[in-house]
Structures are given as C-alpha cells and as structure tokens.
Amino acid sequence: MTVDQAERIATSQAVWAILFIILFGLVIGYLMKMSEHREKKLLEFYDKSKNESNIREERLLNHLEETTNKLGDISNIVENVQGEMVRMNARLENIERK
C-alpha cells in the first residue's frame, strides 16, 4: 500500500462514516450500561427509602395510638373531677342551707 492510497483512504468519507458509526455504537453501549447502573442504584435507593418510610410510619402510628389512649385517660379523669366538683357544690349548698 502506497502513501497515495493511504491518503485516499484517509480522506474517503466512507472510512470516516464507518469510524463514526463504530464510535456511535460504542457511545450508545456505554450510555446504556451507565443507564442500567443508575437505574439499579435508583431502585435500591427507592427500596431503602420505602423500608425506612414503613418503619417511620409504624412508629408514628404507635405514637398516635399511645397519645389517643393517654387522651382517653385524661378525659376520664376530667369527667371524674367534674363529678366531684358537682358533689362538692351540692354539699356546700346543703351546708349553706343549714
């Protein structure tokens, strides 16, 4: 192969087109691999976040249930105090009448 033939091949659009297609294929392959890698990481992050969210939700529901129970207890105590106040008022009225 002579220098002239090598120059003609190098300046030929077909050679550059083939090189471009090969390079394009390599870039697309690389991008697909990176995309799969990112997708895998995102799915792992999603699963981890979902598990953490479920744990957090369970803790919040337990706390809400405990708070509801405590408020029920407080409500019962307030009712008892009101009953005692009514009885004390009745006693005071009886004492004042005498």
From TrEMBL:
Transmembrane segment boundaries: 14-32
Domain of life assignment: Bacteria
Keyword set, alphabetical order: Membrane, Transmembrane, Transmembrane helix
The name this protein goes by in its record: Uncharacterized protein
